[in-house]
Structures are given as structure tokens and as C-alpha cells.
Amino acid sequence: MGAAEYRIPFADRVDALGAVRRYVADNEDTVMRVLTEFSPHRTARAEIRSFLATLDGAEEEIRRVRPGCVPRAAVFVPSNIPLYSYALHVLVASLYSDVITFRPSSENKSQMQRLHTLLAPVHRLPIKLFELSQRKFVTGPVREADLIVFTGRYSNAETIREGLAEDQLFLFFGNGINPFVIAPDADLARAAEDVTRIRLHNSGQDCFGPDVLFVPEGRTDDFVDLLSEGLASLRFGRNDDPDVDYGPICYDSALVNCSDYLVRHARRIRYGGRIDLRSRRIEPTVLLWGFDDKIPLEEMFAPVFNVVAYPSARLLRDRLSSPYFSERALGAMVYGSDPETVKVLSKRHHTCVNHTLLDAEDGNRPFGGFGMRANYLSYGGERHAEPLLTSQAVARNIPTAAPTTVGGK
């Protein structure tokens, strides 16, 4: 089907998305009050900007990608970025999905309920919030869906996928190690500033945060000093304070996991390491590792910086090409000039040079890497790890069909 012949399956809903976009822009303070219950003020502002930009690009995305009609879609909303996820996986998807049922994470159920209560009367689309257990969601809407979108842990994704039929399209959005590499000629001050910005995004509770930073052995001390100096200047406070740099940790599991991690590796700490359970504050913490140390690269929703001193670019490239990194390949960042390392990473990662993954993200374009534990598409009994955009996955895998009348409008 040529671009000139394509018709958006539910083109009348474009106006509904425009109405939501205007509502959020005109009532930003109302939306901010909901978002800042879990996110710092600056993160919430950035999430609203991403939400608006994604809706601005929605019609162009659908006309460019040309998905067919999906009768039923089921969406597992992640525990963070609730408003942005509502745009990515619900509102934009409504242009080609007749009925969408979504289930919030137990962590942000109340927040998602209030956002949906605010926005549903504006768009008036067949978008349903499912409030029962995940088990009932899986045995109900998921079993009936043509498209399933899941954001979360790989093990949970596999459990759900194994119960699906071959003609159900399943998209898994997970997380990666997201290595941050500093080349020998890098501007250390810029690298320290940018890695602080992405690692402290949402107080460290974001899947784009790098789990490991590789720094040349000869420059490691200088980098750790710059990084620590910058972290010492950051301000902790309430999420609704626009002047704070980071706020309380939302998730009990993050507090427990981070506490355990820092206790086990206390001798590696070079800066920070304090946790205040009453205020739920985790002080930004820098740990220093040798290249041959066995580093437990566990994803933590916490402001933890694992700095690894590497002896040579060749050994670093071998490490980054290993199966462990490859199967978790999502994004990577390289600062300075090291084209060979960029080449190695780019084979499997979405690789940014001298800017962060946050800077590169575009809600209307495919994103991710080629690591099966980071993100994959499953259809017809086969899995494929690749950068994902839901509309594109639908266009390539679900046979084109005329719009149905399952949900009415």
C-alpha cells in the first residue's frame, strides 16, 4: 500500500489526541500535582514535554509507518513515566487499535487512575483501565488481545509470552546495562555533568540510567573527583520543589536492594553511601572498581555510579562484545573520540556520542537495541530483539484489516 493510498484506521481520533494535548498544556499544574507524588519536579516537567512532543508527532508517525487495524490491545503500564507511557502505548496506539485495555503497575496504580480520570473525559476513546490483579488481566484482556505491550522484567515477560497464541503480537520493553564509556581524550567535566543528569533522572529511578561507567585508568581519579564534586553540590528535597535536584525513592524494593548492595560493597565506595530511611533519601554514591573485579551489574532504581577503570580500549571492546553485555544491549553512550568502540557498541546498542540516551529519545521513532533481555518482539512463534516502535511492529507483523466496531468511536 502506497503512502498516498493509506488511511489511518481511526482517523477521527486524531482530534481527540489534539484535545488531550491542549488539556495537558493548559492544565499543567493539575497534572504536575499527580506526577510529583512519585517524581521530582524537574523530571515531571520533562515527562510532560515528552508527552506533548509524542502527541504532536502522532499523526505523522502513523502516516509514515502505516499500521493496519488492531481490534484489541492490552498494555502493561510501567511503574515510572506514567503520563509518557499513556501517550506512547495508549493514546497513539488508539489511532490504529479499536479497543485498548491497560493495567497500571501496583506501584503507581493510584497515580494512573487519577491521570486517566483527568484525561478520559477529554478524549472519550474506548480506552479501559483494568483494576484487578495481573493474573486476571493475563487470563482476560491479554488472552483476547491481538497486541500485547509489556514493560518490566524479562522473566515476567517470558512467563506471559509463553501463554500466548502464535498470532498474538507481543512487545517487550525492558532495560539494559546502558554502558557509559569515557574515551582517553574526553572532556571529563562534560562527561561528569551528563552522566549525573541521566543517572539522577527521576532520582535514579529510570531504565536509561547507566549501570556502569568505563573510565581510562590514567584519568579515573580525576573523573571520580569531578563527579564527586558535582554530586556534593546537588540538593535533595520534596518532589514538588522546583529547585531540588533529586528527591525521595518511591519504591521499597529500591531502598532494600540499594541498601544491601552498598553494604556488600562498602569498601568500593569513594563518595556518598548514606541512606536515610525516614526521608527515603539515597545519597548519590560513587563506587570504584578494577577492570578484573567481578562487578554485580544489577539494575537499581537508585542514584548509584559504578565506575570501572579500564586498561586499554581493546580490552574494553572485548568486554562490551561479551555475551553478557550483548544479550542486555539497549543503549550506550560514548564521550570523547573512540570510533572503534562506537562501532562495536553500535552493532547491538542504540549508541549516543557526546550526548545521553535521554537527549536521543523520540517517542515517535524506534528505540532500543538488539539484546533479547532488553527488548524484543514476539510473533508467529519467533522472538526478534530489535529497536521497537509499536506502530511499526504492528505494520510489519499484523495482517492489514479494515477497522472493526468493537469499541464504537
TrEMBL record:
<protein>
    <recommendedName>
        <fullName>Aldehyde dehydrogenase domain-containing protein</fullName>
    </recommendedName>
</protein>
<dbReference type="Pfam" id="PF00171">
    <property type="entry name" value="Aldedh"/>
</dbReference>
<dbReference type="InterPro" id="IPR016161">
    <property type="entry name" value="Ald_DH/histidinol_DH"/>
</dbReference>
<keyword id="KW-0560">Oxidoreductase</keyword>
<feature type="domain" description="Aldehyde dehydrogenase">
    <location>
        <begin position="9"/>
        <end position="371"/>
    </location>
</feature>
<dbReference type="InterPro" id="IPR016163">
    <property type="entry name" value="Ald_DH_C"/>
</dbReference>
<dbReference type="InterPro" id="IPR015590">
    <property type="entry name" value="Aldehyde_DH_dom"/>
</dbReference>
<dbReference type="GO" id="GO:0016620">
    <property type="term" value="F:oxidoreductase activity, acting on the aldehyde or oxo group of donors, NAD or NADP as acceptor"/>
</dbReference>
<dbReference type="InterPro" id="IPR016162">
    <property type="entry name" value="Ald_DH_N"/>
</dbReference>
